[in-house]
């Protein structure tokens, strides 16, 4: 809804020291929130936004005649925008000054200005009021990891959305999507959040003819291939919805080769239902290529794990397979051209990487086998040598021992004869 929390740049010289001391006597919680905020570091105090006399301890004197409660949504937007559209004030912070104009162009801003609808989102609904932080600060309600919760506060409210004829399941659907899991569970900030697709201050649902441009900001290769496909003409003619027609919007699932199936729940079969439709043959061919690559990569991964468990050093083979995986991911993008011929070169390159991986594994298995055979033979020879040596030694010492016994017997016999 609203993308970034910007500091309200008022020079500290304009905010007298201790100006908020009287305000926090009654408004302590708001004062604590303000003290931690980006605004406080920029010199903004209570009276900067609300007016009044901070030094006065009497309520009537403190509030004065010019107090601005800013409780009216329209008044709050105009006041915040008054500073944030001031080029001189924003210059020192490097902040954009078109956010107010963008807001008035948004669905939220139009309803507020045209119908005075107090339920639409305004600055404080998304950024907060006193405890405002920059969008890059994890404490900010509009930090990328917090946007689903913030936007979902309204867009997940069935009663509120029902008054506008809108669905209230977008936040929940997004949480379960491939984008939502990557962002909220894995913490990958490169994955889109609400404002990446809908905009922030100029928030509006992308029109049908704009969806491809929105998705194409991230999926550039996919967009290039889609524009080469016959589907592009169908999208321009209004007979299909670009991107969302196949992938959906908030509940985008992990893409797989099975989306190319023309039956068994495949996406292509939803439109290409006629058995004579040439599109079915193209989809079937592409599915065959992708499914075979997936199976071969899976089998090679298992071979790598098995070989690694044998103690083989397989860094080069892992590199080959990583290259194959990368080519497989790129092949997914090329399917958007809806032409099997576009896949041919990439398929061959992917198979070549898989073949190199397998050849490397087989070579190292053979080398391991040869080492085992050589080691076995070596130990056999060593043991044989030791055995022969022991036998030889036994025979040598046995002969020497026998000769000594015979000599001793003859000497004993001689002594007996002499004694007789």
Layout: helices, strands, pairs:
Blueprint: H1 23-26, H2 28-36, H3 38-41, H4 46-50, H5 59-63, H6 73-84, H7 87-91, H8 99-105, H9 107-115, H10 123-127, H11 147-155, H12 158-162, H13 170-175, H14 178-185, H15 194-198, H16 211-216, H17 220-228, H18 230-237, H19 244-247, H20 268-271, H21 278-309, H22 315-334, H23 340-419
Task: For the structure shown, list the relevant keywords.
single chain; 420 residues; mainly alpha; 3 domains; 62% helix; disordered N terminus
Radius of gyration: 39 Å
Mean pLDDT over all positions: 88
What is the terminal-to-terminal distance? Answer: 131 Å
Tally the beta strands: 0
Number of domains: 3
User: Which residues sit in consecutive blocks of at least 5 with pLDDT less than 50?
Assistant: 1-20
Strand content: under 5%
Query: What string gives the helices and strands in order?
Result: HHHHHHHHHHHHHHHHHHHHHHH
Decide which structural class fits the backbone. mainly alpha
How helix-rich are the residues, as a percent range? 55-70%
Query: What is the makeup of the main sheet?
Result: none
Alpha plus pi helix count? 23
Structure report:
By secondary structure, this protein is mainly alpha-helical. The chain folds into three domains: 12-205, no CATH class; 206-253, no CATH class; 278-374. Helix content is 62%, strand content 0%. The chain contains 23 helices and no strands. The protein has helices at residues 23-26, 28-36, 38-41, 46-50, 59-63, 73-84, 87-91, 99-105, 107-115, 123-127, 147-155, 158-162, 170-175, 178-185, 194-198, 211-216, 220-228, 230-237, 244-247, 268-271, 278-309, 315-334, 340-419. α17 (220-228) crosses α22 (315-334) and α22 packs antiparallel against α23 (340-419). The longest helix has 80 residues, at 340-419.
